[in-house]
Amino acid sequence: MKIELASSYGFCFGVKRAIKIAEETPNSKTYGPLIHNKDEIKRLKDGFNIGLANSLDDVEDNDKIVIRTHGIPKKELEVLKEYKTDIIDATCPYVTTPQKIVEKMSFEGYSIVIFGDKNHPEIKGVVSYAKDLKDAFIVLEESELDNLPLKSKVAVVAQTTRKPEDFLKITSALILKNKEVRIFNTICNATFENQDSASDLAKKADIMIVIGGKHSSNTKQLYLICKHNCKDSYLIENETELISEWFIGKKLCGISAGASTPDWIVQNVIDEISKIV
Predict the structure, then answer these.
(1) Predicted confidence band at 120 (pLDDT cuts at 50, 70, 90)?
(2) Any idea what the CATH number is for the domain that residue 71 is in?
(3) I need a labelling partner for 196 at 20 to 30 A (CA). Which of 163, 179, 223, 270 fits?
(4) Residue 242 sits in the same domain as residue 257
(5) Which pLDDT belongs to residue 250?
(6) Boundary-marking domain end, from 92, 122, 157
(7) Residues 189-215: what's their mean pLDDT?
(8) Domain of 124: which CATH number?
(9) Nearest alpha-carbon partner for 92 in 197, 195, 39, 20
(10) H or E element that contains 208
(11) Which of 183, 208, 240 delimits the end of a domain?
């Protein structure tokens, strides 16, 4: 059986940057999981003594605090700055952009529409930058736009890992319903590239393995894209989750990985598949 990697996969710019910042800040704590990959977080803990602060209650004076790639709510960042802590901001610049847009446009009197998952840490951070949370709305489906008390002026941003075609549905609906709509395409280019290359590979593979955190939005999107094009697609976090029966009779195994998946985990998966087949 042939094993083929997608032409674009794995660590994005923001994650590479955050990992480098963490490695250069040993004996620190990340505020929230730095990235959505428990194996990489364990590597940072074991190799660099990087702990985890899940909330403000876990922060102590004189701590070195690394802000996670997804960013954090504005008020929590302000409270952290009041503590006697050394704050190192590893928020991905592509996440900082929608934060700034939401803040600016809300202060200019626009209603804010955010296309994304309200439970995702990135979106919790982005929406917190609105001047008035009562005038900021988070949606995942076009139908959720119905009956929203929007002003005549609307600004819309997207979670960095959402699919462009879904964002287009939201923006198109807003244009038809509102007098002025400012659209900011805040979806990350790395997301486009990983999704497109995974889709291309899945179309010719007879099994696809997608590697990444089960709580990672971009990894789940990759998996859904692969599943659409290759029915035998599987989402795993590491090589221990592989099942030998998946590969019986297969000729081409495609592999992709989410933006929080390090190369060493991808290589471990490849090595394990090679043993199985």
Answers:
(1) very high
(2) 3.40.50.11270
(3) 270
(4) yes
(5) 96
(6) 92
(7) 93
(8) 3.40.1010.20
(9) 20
(10) strand 207-211
(11) 183
* CA 30/CA 89 separation, integer angstroms: 10
> Per residue in 38-62, pLDDT tens?
999 999 999 999 999 999 999 998 8
Average pLDDT over residues 59-88: 94
Residues 77-81, mean pLDDT to the nearest whole number = 92
* Residue 222, φ and ψ in degrees, nearest 5: -60, -45
- Candidates 155, 160, 163, 162; CA nearest to 137 is 155
Taking the CA atoms of 100, 215, 202 and 252 in sequence, report the sign of the dihedral they define.
Answer: positive
Torsion of Cα atoms, 144 then 124 then 107 then 177, to 10°: -10
Q: For residue 141, which phi and psi values (nearest 5 degrees)? A: -125, 150
- Asked about 23 being catalytic, the answer comes back as no
Contact 192, 218 (CB under 8 A): no
Q: Which domain holds residue 82?
A: 13-92
Assess whether 70 and 122 both reside in one domain.
Answer: no
Same domain, 177 and 135: yes
Reading the block at residue 29, the tokens are 């704590």
Of the residues 4, 23, 82, 122, only one is catalytic, namely 122
Burial of 1 (0-12, 13-18, 19+ CB in 10 A): middle
Average pLDDT over residues 110-127: 97
pLDDT in tens, 236-269: 999 999 999 999 999 999 999 999 899 999 999 9
Counted domains in the chain: 3
